[in-house]
Write a structure and sequence with these properties.
The chain is α/β, with parallel strands linked by helices and 552 residues long. The chain has 12 helices and 24 strands. Helix 6 (367-371) links the parallel strand 19 (361-363) and strand 20.
Length: 552
């Protein structure tokens, strides 16, 4: 006997999971341009538990079948699933082991059913807006002529489209990691192709802002160390004057535009966590191409100030000529603390007048610094964001990283998917303008000291709990494989868009009331422990949309 059932995409099925522990789903409601996913899980029981392997082919039928793709849920090792002294009761496990994460295209739409294991097939349907009404997605799992399982999902497709995403969303894009992993020289044709492939997957999953390395980003870099150079701007210095060429930048921007990127996140103008030094900057000089600024350049260095005051106006002139300057967001340095506040303010003062009228945003978790005018557009950690919400900070951004490990949403391997997805409703409720995460594809260790294979080490050599460093895997052909965490986060963004549509129909406060009936207070420190409240909340939003449209 093989136990087979359909379950929500919010379930994480481990190799030893009992299918009976998961609630079966038979129906779903969606909007007509929405993407949705579910899983078919299978575990041999009784005598069949001794089987070696059975290949089960998935076949879908009906009008929704052309929209469905199949992937297998693969397991990635985690030797560091959580901080040993800093976790809460909303983790699936705190033990090292194999965790479900990688979504691998199912060869011939086939799931390997293996004795003694629970395996999952991940089904995704991307609707195109052409179908509405009540539909049924029928499907089978078959081994040769033997039908192992026949199932169906009833899909109620509301005759309305999700509106465009208004949340600005960035996950830091580490183009040097792609060069390292694929051994593809930066700016080679192969590198450009790989970068475009990874940007395509980012955009597909709701990323509309792209970290743009005008200079090699001074991020997660050891003091005195260097990351591979990915500087898009060609700098020329003759000993007196600086001039600039933008060929590679234009190629980057054109690539990003064609992929669907809306905003450019210009790399930080000073080093991370306090703005102490200049980033690495390479220039063509009469003596050859060499580094002219870096860790040995203090932020207060007069020559670096001269450089910035020549570069920024020239850069903005170029971007204005392209019609792209108002799509740019700038950084000084992340998370200034009390000990670095004076340096941060001096560094900001050096460029603030040049960037007047352009957003400068930086991570900031101290509301008092905001009140002092340190940062105009703070990006607040979600475990410190409530004072910023109470202060009614306009255009407030949010972020999480490894430090947000208790009581709030995050995307660690060891956390339930409901904890990852709940942030969409929280972002909507609290009128958050943007979301930032530092790791779309970070394949290095702490401070970028060494390369890390994401298939073997999901923690960056014990840098962060598994799941923080990256949300995509590098495929052999230079494309990106999605993680289930990335897909679930995109579902959170779709939840937010559905709420926006409903708010346009009945008002935001009424939508908040609907959500809180199912989820309780929508503060960032209130995360569900199971899938049911989230699914109920989204179903209620969809139902309210349909009712409101019927009255129009």
């Amino acid at each position: 006997m093989i136990k087979i059932k359909t379950v929500s995409s919010l379930e994480k099925c481990f190799l030893d999971s009992d299918p009976d522990d998961f609630e079966q789903i038979d129906s779903i409601s969606v909007l007509k341009n929405q993407r949705f996913s579910f899983q078919i899980i299978a575990r041999p029981l009784g005598d069949d538990r001794l089987m070696h392997r059975l290949y089960a082919k998935f076949t879908a039928s009906g009008c929704l079948a052309p929209f469905v793709s199949a992937r297998t849920v693969e397991f990635i090792p985690s030797v560091f699933p959580c901080y040993p002294d800093n976790y809460d009761d909303n983790y699936l496990s705190t033990s090292p082991g194999l965790y479900p994460d990688l979504l691998l295209p199912a060869k011939d739409d086939t799931l390997s059913i293996i004795g003694g294991q629970t395996r999952a097939l991940w089904l995704t349907a991307q609707l195109d807006g052409s179908i509405a009404g009540d539909r049924t997605l029928d499907f089978t799992l078959s081994a040769g002529d033997n039908v192992l399982f026949s199932g169906a999902i009833k899909v109620h497709i509301i005759d309305a489209d999700l509106p465009p995403q208004t949340l600005i969303n960035t996950q830091w894009f580490h183009s040097d990691c792609l060069s390292t992993y694929y051994d593809a020289p930066v700016f080679s044709d192969r590198w450009w192709t790989i970068v475009r492939n990874f940007v395509d997957v980012a955009v597909k999953n709701g990323q509309n802002m792209l970290l743009t390395p005008v200079f090699t980003p001074p991020l997660d870099t050891a003091v005195g160390g260097e990351r591979p150079t990915v500087q898009l701007i060609d700098v020329y210095f003759d000993g007196k004057n600086y001039t600039f060429s933008y060929d590679n930048l234009d190629k980057w921007l054109n690539m990003a535009n064609s992929a669907g990127i809306k905003y450019y996140e210009i790399s930080h103008l000073f080093t991370q966590w306090g703005a102490a030094c200049a980033p690495k900057i390479i220039a063509h000089t009469p003596e050859g191409t060499k580094r002219i600024f870096g860790w040995d350049t203090q932020a207060s260095d007069e020559e670096y100030k001269t450089f910035l005051r020549r570069f920024i106006p020239d850069f903005l002139t170029h971007m204005k000529a392209r019609g792209d300057d108002k799509r740019c967001f700038f950084h000084i340095s992340d998370e200034p603390g009390a000990d670095s506040l004076a340096v941060y303010m001096k560094s900001k003062k050096c460029v603030a007048d040049l960037l007047d009228g352009y957003p400068i945003m930086d991570a900031l978790s101290n509301i008092e610094f905001y009140k002092q005018g340190v940062i105009d557009r703070p990006v607040a950690a979600i475990n410190h964001i409530q004072p910023f919400i109470d202060e009614k900070v306009p255009d407030l951004w949010a972020y999480y990283c490894c430090g947000q490990c208790r009581g709030v949403s995050n995307r660690f391997f060891a956390m339930p998917s409901c904890r990852t997805r709940c942030i969409g409703f929280q972002l909507f409720k609290n009128d958050i303008a943007g979301f930032l995460h530092w790791g779309y594809n970070f394949y290095y260790s702490w401070c970028s000291r060494e390369f890390v294979d994401p298939y073997r080490d999901s923690s960056g050599n014990y840098f962060t709990p598994s799941g923080d460093c990256y949300s995509v895997y590098p495929a052999p052909d230079g494309t990106a494989y999605e993680s289930l965490r990335l897909v679930v986060f995109y579902d959170a963004l779709q939840d937010m868009r559905a709420c926006r549509l409903l708010a346009d129909l009945i008002g935001k406060s009424a939508v908040d009331d609907i959500l809180e009936r199912h989820l309780g207070t929508l503060s960032f420190d209130n995360c569900p422990h199971s899938a049911r409240p989230l699914l109920s909340a989204r179903a209620a939003v969809n139902s309210a949309i349909e009712k409101a449209l019927a009255k129009k």
